């Protein structure tokens, strides 16, 4: 099943797999705004106050941050890929799962912001209890390029204060706004308050427990994991979040930040975030 739909007026693609999973991606940003695993409930957090306006970021789901993570460069926050319209290339329904592919290529509009020729492809695969997000970056130009990127995934949790993220013990991290790198000493990371950390060279899997639900979150190609929750005070200041929205989300992001990825002309980089729900 695949159908073009509107999400708050924004063009989007909805599709399902034969084994009962479904997903919705807006063409702006190739932004996954809904993932419902087979037999389960919505697994992503979407802010009910999100803007759905052309050129403005969507709050929740999975923003694609490219070619700049956060404010680490001269571009706008998280780069421009999340604010541009991507092309929908089609659905592949081989087997039980179903994958949708989206692409964004450099254009006069992107070249005006960032003078590099590139092609981005995002393949969103759903099937049963699993989601795979595969980002591919190709340097289509004749000069080297370098970028940072993230799949900025907002997981829906019933109560962030009791959600537990495991798998980061012993991993070095940097808190946004701090200069010193620290080492995670906790077996279980909780986010009862504000958290905004880049974990460098994490293990390939973390485990997010939310009550009886467990999400196994894997990454390949991406070198870092970002954990973010704005906490109560910052959330109250965000126009596109309800005041208590922070309680129902936790971002666990597959990121490539340090060092930036360098691509020679013609070179390709691949990064994948995989999520499996078990309960
Ligand atoms: O990935 C974490 C982060 O960079 C935070 O610092 C926080 O500001 C967040 O992303 C959201 O950024 P946004 O531009 O979507 O408001």
Kindly describe this structure.
The protein has 279 residues and is mainly beta. Helices cover 4% and strands 48% of the residues. It has helices at 108-113, 231-236, and strands at residues 2-7, 10-16, 22-26, 31-36, 64-65, 87-92, 98-105, 118-127, 130-139, 145-151, 154-156, 164-166, 172-175, 182-183, 188-189, 195-200, 205-210, 213-220, 224-229, 249-263, 268-278. Strands 6-7-8-9-21-18-17-12-15 form a nine-stranded antiparallel β-sheet, with no helix packed on it. The longest helix has 6 residues, at 108-113. It is globular, with a radius of gyration of 18 Å. The protein binds 6-O-phosphono-beta-D-tagatofuranose. 6-O-phosphono-beta-D-tagatofuranose (TA6) binds at residues 57, 70, 77-78, 152, 176, 196, 226, 228, 253.
